[in-house]
Write a structure and sequence with these properties.
Blueprint (H helix, E strand, L loop, with lengths): L19 E6 L4 H16 L3 E4 L5 H8 L5 E6 L1 H11 L6 E5 L9 E2 L3 H9 L4 E14 L2 E8 L2 E6 L6 E7 L2 E8 L1 E5 L7 H4 L11 E7 L9 E4 L3 E7 L4 E5 L5 E3 L4 E15 L5 H11 L9
Parallel strand pairs: 1-2, 1-3, 3-4, 4-5
Antiparallel strand pairs: 6-7, 6-17, 8-11, 8-15, 9-10, 9-14, 11-12, 12-13, 14-17, 15-16
């Protein structure tokens, strides 16, 4: 069982917990924007310095990059949490998620439970869950074209052409296999319940620090997922005469050319999620998600 990391700081005024908090709603979810106003008022009444703005707000991003906030409260769905993770993970800022979406795999509390949760937060009654991130880079002719911090997965795949891509995969500078497939997923344990799961990969506990490789629709190639140690490095080199793309956490695809290499390794940064549930929450919450996918809109 994961160690319970209790954030129990005694502040000068006697209040335990965070003192500078940013609140970021999903801009297209009206109820999230409306609820933000109430949360800001609640925190301000308790003497907390609060800044609110969407995750694309330039000032919010500058403040977090400069280390001016102790915590980010994100209101939305799992997509909001991914975007928050890209910003907060590299800056060591913990995230508290309030579910305003449908799935909420990464979220901690429901919309109607935030008052009790924030009171517990102010009382120091919570723990921080640390989750592994990945670092990915695109290399062409020994030149790095881009680098990214990854929460869920790095995906190398075919583009709009319905043709498989040939990919040579090396692990720790040693040849692993050549795949002919729709794509290859390099995932964190957090991402094991996302695209990797849909592609037939295993479900990994979030506290693990491993890299999961899962091929997408492999043709006459290794069709099993492979779990690598945290210290491993993965190189996925594309060999194709048609379109291939790179996608980071479902963001817009980046075109790859024949011979391009995507390198993936464990990041030096970790995500930090504020939790109020006991550390066994993952398996308790997993069963309802697996038995009833809320994205379908069908209830039982």
């Amino acid at each position: 069982m994961q160690d319970k990391l209790v954030y129990n700081i005694v502040m000068p005024d006697g209040v335990r917990g965070f003192q500078k908090i940013a609140v970021a709603p999903h801009p297209e979810i009206l109820v999230a924007v409306e609820e933000t106003e109430h949360i800001v008022s609640f925190l301000s009444e308790h003497g907390i310095r609060v800044f609110s703005g969407v995750l694309d707000d330039e000032q919010l991003r500058k403040n977090i990059n400069k280390g001016e906030f102790d915590l980010l409260i994100a209101l939305g769905g799992d997509g909001t949490m991914l975007r928050a993770g890209h910003l907060c993970g590299p800056n060591d800022v913990p995230i508290l998620g309030i579910n305003m979406g449908r799935f909420g795999f990464l979220m901690e509390i429901r919309q109607d439970g935030w008052r009790d949760a924030l009171q517990r937060l102010l009382n120091g009654d919570f723990w921080l869950e640390k989750r592994m991130m990945l670092s990915a880079e695109q290399v062409r002719n020994d030149k790095v074209l881009g680098k990214w911090d990854v929460v869920n997965e790095t995906v190398v795949s075919r583009g709009s052409f319905v043709r498989p891509v040939q990919m040579k995969v090396n692990v720790d500078d040693r040849f692993l296999a050549t795949y002919v497939a729709d794509g290859m997923i390099a995932s964190t344990p957090t991402g094991s319940t996302a695209y990797a799961l849909a592609a037939g990969g295993p479900i990994l506990p979030p506290e693990l620090r491993t890299i999961l490789l899962v091929p997408i629709a492999p043709h006459l190639s290794i069709d099993r997922g492979i779990v690598l140690a945290e210290g491993s490095s993965v190189a996925i080199q594309v060999h194709t005469n048609h379109q291939a793309v790179l996608s980071i956490d479902g963001q817009p695809p980046i075109d790859l050319e024949d011979g391009d290499c995507v390198n993936v390794r464990a990041s030096n940064h970790s995500l930090q999620f504020v939790r109020f549930q006991d550390p066994g929450y993952f398996y308790r919450n997993l069963t309802p998600h697996m038995n009833q996918n809320p994205s379908t809109g069908i209830t039982r």
